[in-house]
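Repro:
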Amino acid sequence: MTTTLWHERAAALKMDGRAFIDGQRRWAKSAQQFDNFSPVDGRNLGAVARCQSDDVDLAVVAARCAFDDGRWAGLAPAARKRVLIKFADLVLKYGDELALLETLDMGKPIKYSLSVDVNSTANCLRWYGEAIDKIYDEIAPTGSDSLALITREPVGVVAAIVPWNYPMIMAAWKIAPALAAGNSVILKPSEKSPLTALRLAEIALEAGIPAGVFNVLPGYGHEAGAALALHMDVDCIGFTGSTKIGKQILQMAGQSNLKRAWTELGGKSANIVCADCPDLDAAVDAAIGSIYFNQGESCNAPSRLFVEASIKDKFLEKALAMMPNFQPGDPLDETTVMGAIVDATQLKTVMGYIEAGKSEGAKLLSGGEQVKLESGGYYVAPTLFDQVDSGMKIAREEIFGPVLSVLSFTDINDAIREANASSFGLQAAVWTADLSRAIKTARALRAGTVHVNQYDGDDITVPFGGYKQSGNGRDKSLHAFDKYTELKTTWIRIS
């Protein structure tokens, strides 16, 4: 599809910002709304329901009734499987529409909304649908006078609060295993990017997920999100977002009904490139491509690049040669690889970190400025700082923007120590031809995922999550079922 056609479809697109509760679209009970502006060009995409505690109560009642009467939880796993596979098929059927909503709402390039976000969402729904009727319960090895059954049961009503950087994918990572296990789900998307979540709810209903089982509440975190976290009849909450808000979610879970709370939070991932790196070009491609993908708005972005001093100049020469390939462009142009920052607030945050890097003495080698001002949108040039010290703000705090900090080392142990000094522990990487060094470094790095001689390797079959203040949850893989199921022991005495 040409850029012109994407713009024409965007102009003709009918947005619906109403919440989705118990199988129906509806405005918030208070009638309050907020405007949703596109980061692409600043256009108003339309009004969105500002859901609050009254709307949360409605959604929880609907979800609880649906769970208790067994309209979904009571189905055989194979029956839920068929519906989730149809859900996945419909996501692909409506892929162009979903991709357009994602790009207009969040600012990412349409080529990635199509090839990554839509496909990954469908794959996630399909995978968990396929998995659910292949998970067996257990019989404990008790004595001959007993039979102890260990079974998994859905936890009940699950609230999922997801961020704005990958709205569809983050939603799928939570709703797919939760629904597959038989739970009722209430999804709270970010107020910055609610549109695909609301459309997914309609598609789920079309696929055959009963009314009340999957509800979507747009709104602000301190209103709808907090009401879900504090609700006495929500059994579980899955949250992806900032560490600051994740801590609040955990506190609210404890203040209310001790609902289980799972958090996948921020990152400041370290990417360590040793002098014996087996493929320097591949290391450069990965370092640059990974930090600027999705405009740097990725929790696992390798924003701290440690390069051994003897190869740093050569590495930076190659890296700087790649920078023109990542200049921001029109997100509705299928050749664009870096789009818009999600909104004016995040733009201000990113520019603030760039100014902090300059003032603290880091050397700006590329970028560092806002671009495409004439578009009305929010764009930042890919930015690269050299001579960064671990004590600098840009090396300590999550920026969530296209900003790369380069640090050098001469001893791998020093690089490991500085990498681990972060309060985060989401991902890390090491590039070396020495197998022993690779294994030792991977074992020493305190991160949920450690890449060796690559970055961003990804598959639905492996868990995603972190150590330390990167959170306690794991999305993806069969391990995700641990979050959304209860283990029950049934002990039978044999007479």
